[in-house]
From TrEMBL:
Record-linked PANTHER family: TREHALOSE 6-PHOSPHATE PHOSPHATASE
Protein name per its UniProtKB record: Trehalose 6-phosphate phosphatase
One Pfam family per UniProt: Trehalose_PPase
Pathway the protein contributes to: Glycan biosynthesis; trehalose biosynthesis
InterPro entries according to UniProt: HAD-like_sf, HAD-SF_hydro_IIB, HAD_sf, OTSB-like, Trehalose_PPase
Keywords (A to Z) from UniProt: Hydrolase, Magnesium, Metal-binding
Catalytic activity: alpha,alpha-trehalose 6-phosphate + H2O = alpha,alpha-trehalose + phosphate
Species: Micromonospora polyrhachis
Example GO molecular function: metal ion binding
Cofactors named for this entry: Mg(2+)
Family per record: Belongs to the trehalose phosphatase family.
Taxonomic lineage from the root: Bacteria, Bacillati, Actinomycetota, Actinomycetes, Micromonosporales
Signal sequence extent: none
Highest taxon above the source species: Bacteria
One GO biological process term: trehalose biosynthetic process
């Protein structure tokens, strides 16, 4: 595979964790670290409201903000949810709802204007889902999207997905499938790949950590940046899981065992980059 210029190091895929960090040390001040939230920084729970970052994650990210150019969380959760989980971190960029919302540092949340007219549709959709879907489905209303979960009732997968697809057709919404979930979103062009594509032009390197199929678009954005500029290097890291893990790992450069292991990995990264 084509070697690419990573400062003082020439890396050729596949590369090891040590090689990736050594190449990052040379340009830590130009490096952006992007993290997905659920299943990456936080272990999966049956109840989406109960989720918290894994041990060591908050301390490690806080320390990393001092040594890299930027740290950003890129999630399908609303910014308000992310801000609550990362309240102690004032220097982290938050991208919520696949980039329909963002907030930089402690600034106000900005919402993509084209998505706002879809709020009433989402309210109606969430009400209808609660009334029509079988018991065991968990309906998560997120203002500009609705997630239909079947983690605690996997036998409902086909029924929930078919109901969601039908509603998307009826209302003109887009569908994003994930780990035991189908999500309906406004027909507005925002995804994790677009967020990363817009955020990396001024960076010399970037790491993206993710566990779900929506994160593969973010990996692709790093690959595209690298193809356009051989002096840039992007490192795609999968977090293993029994549902989407194989697909995400196949698209990644490196795989980490779990969100808890990522906490350890980031703690080690602080020492390597400091
Ligand atoms: O982009 P992300 O930050 O990874 O968000 C993706 C979805 O994460 C949440 O659902 C997932 O985690 C839940 C809590 O652990 C779990 O119960 C569910 O099965 C997973 O799909 C979140 O609730 C969704 O809104 C996000 O779309």
């Amino acid at each position: 595979m084509r070697p690419y210029n990573s400062g003082n190091h020439q890396l050729t895929r596949p590369f090891s964790v040590d090689q990736a960090w050594n190449a990052t040390v040379d340009r830590a001040g130009q490096c952006v670290l992007f993290f997905d939230f659920d299943g990456t920084l936080a272990p999966v729970e049956d109840d989406p409201t109960a989720v918290q970052p894994a041990p060591k994650v908050l301390a490690a990210i806080e320390a990393l903000t001092e040594v890299v150019q930027r740290v950003a969380i890129v999630s399908a959760r609303p910014v308000e949810f992310l801000r609550d989980r990362f309240a102690s971190l004032t220097d982290v960029d938050l991208y919520g709802l696949y980039g329909l919302e963002h907030s930089h540092g402690s600034a106000e949340t900005v919402t993509e204007p084209a998505a706002l007219p879809w709020v009433p549709t989402m309210v109606e959709l969430a009400e209808r889902a609660r009334a029509e879907l079988p018991e065991g489905t968990l309906v998560e209303y997120k203002r500009l999207s609705v997630a239909l979960h079947y983690r605690t009732a996997p036998e409902l997968a086909a029924a929930v997905e078919s109901w969601g697809q039908a509603q998307a057709g009826r209302l003109g919404l887009r569908v994003q499938c994930g780990r035991m979930v189908i999500e309906l979103k406004p027909p507005v062009d925002r995804d994790k790949g677009m967020v990363i594509g817009e955020a990396v032009p001024s960076a010399g390197c970037a790491w993206y950590f993710g566990d779900d199929v929506s994160d593969i678009k973010a990996f692709a954005a790093l690959r595209a940046r690298e193809a356009a500029d051989p002096s840039f290097f992007g490192i795609c890291v999968a977090v293993a899981n029994p549902e989407t893990g194989q697909e995400v790992s196949t698209a990644a450069d490196l795989t980490i065992e779990s969100p808890e292991a990522l906490g350890d990995f980031l703690t080690e990264a602080v020492h390597r980059l400091s």
